[in-house]
Amino acid sequence: xxxxxFRCIVLALGLLAHSSISFMQTSSLISxxxxxxxxxxxxxxxxxxxxxxxxxxGSNKKNKYASTSGFGGAAMAPCPCGSALGxxxxxxxxxxxxxxxxxxxAAQVVRARYSAxxxxxxxxxxxxxxxxxKNFMSDIxxxxxxxxxxxxxxxxxxxxxxxDESYEGVGESEIAKVKFVAKMTQVDSREQTAFMxxxxxxxxxxxxxxxxxxxxxxxxxxxxxxxxxEEEETEPEExxxxxxx
Length: 245
Fold this sequence. Notes:
By secondary structure, this protein is of the alpha+beta class.
């Protein structure tokens, strides 16, 4: 497509790295901010006088669409990964809860990283990547700003389909490979596009993200049904003729 935003998403869905300290600290702050303040109404003493106004017919009916989870509309919003679950019960729990992330499978981490771009959860994107990723950037603040500026506004992320998931080895030497197709829609043209990637995940010890799966590298391919990328034409090199002295 030649779109800078698309190329950034394709690369950034895999090639990011950081230690777990930043992710866990940020996750704690986000989690604290998402809590509901105040005391439940059921625990408060009722001192107010009864109102003399009559209730309107049907006013005591409960709203069957009201959220009861404490997260407002986010609890009912569908997860960007394309599952049948709501965001909070799907990828959202990995974004907000470091313990849940530590227990996630490699395929769940792939979906969570995909949804993190849709939800702008930059801390999770960085914190779920292996420290030995070849694209590691030591300037984390600059890295975060680069992600925020270039990888969201031009596309709607609509589905992350897991094609295959496999595991090799045991313990800390275990390696996971996940093949998936990431789908997205260009905001202005509404053009649908996709790419396929086989991601490799490894753990980096309990001291990093509580031993969770971390993205290390990936092989990007053309997704089924998508056109092959056009190869850039190169000018033929001019032949050099040796001249005998």
